[in-house]
TrEMBL record:
Family as reported in the entry's similarity comment: Belongs to the iron/manganese superoxide dismutase family.
Name listed for the protein in its UniProt record: Superoxide dismutase
EC annotation from Swiss-Prot or TrEMBL: 1.15.1.1
Organism phylogeny: Bacteria, Pseudomonadati, Bacteroidota, Bacteroidia, Marinilabiliales
Span of domain Manganese/iron superoxide dismutase N-terminal: 2-81
Role played: Destroys radicals which are normally produced within the cells and which are toxic to biological systems.
Amino acid sequence: MKHELPKLPYALNALEPLISQRTLEFHYGKHHQAYVNNLNNLIEGTSFENADLVDIILKSDGGIFNNAAQVFNHTFYFMALKPRGGGKPRNKLYDALVYTFGTFEKFKEEFSKAGATLFGSGWVWLVADANNKLSIVKTSNAANPLCDNLTPIMTLDVWEHAYYLDTQNARPKYIENFWELIDWELIETRFENL
């Protein structure tokens, strides 16, 4: 199975000024594409050649795992952004966040703090366990919560290439901008389909 770079549901300049076209040209167009290309090259002639992305993540290690996970992680991140996003979720997800964290604002604060304090490169995730209990987890490098039997619902990329062209080393500003771009309808659908 040949893996492909997914088409974004928005134009490269649609997230400006919060995420610039230049950042997306590099982050999506070069970094994400490189993970796709590397994965396709690495799985050729292996037992993963015809496997889907989740199977590869769950059963591989080393370079194959790193590239497969980064294809998944980036796709999951980019697809949950939209121009003029933000606000708050509604319905079951909102209720679950309030139940788990006390208030939506407290969830947002804890998620932002996790992103700001993750050392080095990685990801912050809102995940659900087998009982649909929500939590926030941080993963380093390409690690993915699927490997810990957790279902991802939303993620924040805190690798420097996600924000350095726009906010330089100001990761907290990038995180603040992220909240204005979230596609809560998509994230609610992910939660409701658990």
